[in-house]
Amino acid sequence: MDKEYVGYILAIVGIALIAMGALNVAGYINFQVVDTTLPTILYTYPANGMTYKAGALNEIIIYAKDNSDVVSASYNDEYGLKTLTVTPYTKLYHPFVIQGWKYPDVNFDGRVDSIDYNLVISGKNAYNSTYDLNSDGKIDLADIYFVGKYVVTVTFAISITPSYSIGENVTFIFSALDTAGNPATISGWFSTADYQMLSGEWRIHGVTVTDNMMIVLSERKTTITFICNDTTISATDVTAKVTVENTAYTLSYNGNFIWQGTIELPSGESKLILEASTQSKMNKIAVTVSTPEAFTFTVGHGLMLSGGILLAVGVIIVLKKKEVEW
User: For residue 150, with 0-12 CB atoms within 10 Å meaning exposed, 13-18 middle and 19 or more buried, which class applies?
Assistant: First the structure.
């Protein structure tokens, strides 16, 4: 094939890649394979749709079946979406029975997998009531089949710190997400009238902030401070923290009823939930913080870069061919 034609082909392919990359960066083309299969919630504790007083519920337990792990959970209050901490679950405080059968996570590690399957098989030789899933006095193929049926079921627990606003009725939707971001949900309500206001002042980068305020910072790293004005309480009873998207940061006590911490914020706009609480008092506000945007190299940028290289090579080949002809 003539080198000039090769140059033209490379240039055309380069232009096409640049166009595809630009469309991807602009959001018009998505090269991701999307998994839309929702996790199946088999059982929850507490029951879906119940009402609880603040502090009366400190743990949510969900059994979900999917091909990937359940990774996070959240609830909605007047400040919007709040991410909760998912803790490793190693013991079933609320044993689950499926139509008369024991839940087949027989080693209580939070998921049904090949380890549970092999343990049940081993029970055929040495009887163990834990592995007798239908409690019929023997371990046989019925038990083995049952545990196989529930492989890839995940058990997860959410530890909840009572940190809601004063006098608020919180409607929550706990969303169990798989690794593709598909949610399965349970819902309920909290009544938080039993909290009192914890008097204090919040500062971000030295600036006093109030609820629903927006602040613009020139850098992503910033210092957040809580100054407690209620000196009748013990400082050891106060927990002060900042939640940014999926991450919670605990502020350190510096003495004189001041809690402080330095964190690095994501680029762009972020909603910060600032919380200071004792067992019966609460100071909670939400602040939107804007920081400088950071460049992120995406698939689209990679296509544009590759296209640019091919285009440049193609043009060089064509020009060199024409120089020879001249």
Answer: buried
DSSP 8-state symbol, 158 = E
Collect contacts of 207-210 with beta carbons under 8 A, ≥24 apart.
Answer: 209/274, 209/285, 209/287, 210/285
Q: How far apart are alpha carbons 289 and 267 in whole angstroms?
A: 10
**This prediction's pTM:** 0.43
Largest interatomic CA distance in the chain: 95
Cis status, amide bond into 46, omega within 30 of 0: yes
Has residue 160 got a pLDDT over 60? no
Domain boundaries, the chain: 3-32+305-325, 40-191, 198-291
Nearest residue to 156 (alpha-carbon basis) of 230, 67, 85: 85
Q: How far apart are CA 246 and CA 265, in angstroms?
A: 12
pLDDT digits (tens, 9 = 90+) for 201-211: 999 999 999 88
Predicted pLDDT at 213: 87
Find tokens 């049952």 and name the residue. Answer: 146
Q: 255: left (phi > 0), else alpha (psi -120 to 50), else beta? A: left
User: For residue 223, what pLDDT is reported?
Assistant: 95
> What pLDDT is attached to residue 281?
79
Q: Which helix (H) or strand (E) covers residue 57, if one does?
A: none
Please state which of the four CATH numbers 3.40.50.2300, 3.40.980.10, 2.60.40.10, 1.10.8.60 is assigned to the domain occupying 198-291. 2.60.40.10
Q: Dihedral through CA 69, CA 33, CA 81, CA 208, nearest 10?
A: 110
Q: Which of 182, 173, 162 is CA-nearest to residue 80? A: 173
DSSP code of 111?
Answer: B
For residues 292 and 184, give the distance between their C-alpha atoms in angstroms, rounded to a whole number: 34
- Assess whether pLDDT exceeds 50 at residue 166: no
Alpha-carbon span 75 to 321, nearest angstrom? 65
**pLDDT above 90: residue 253:** yes
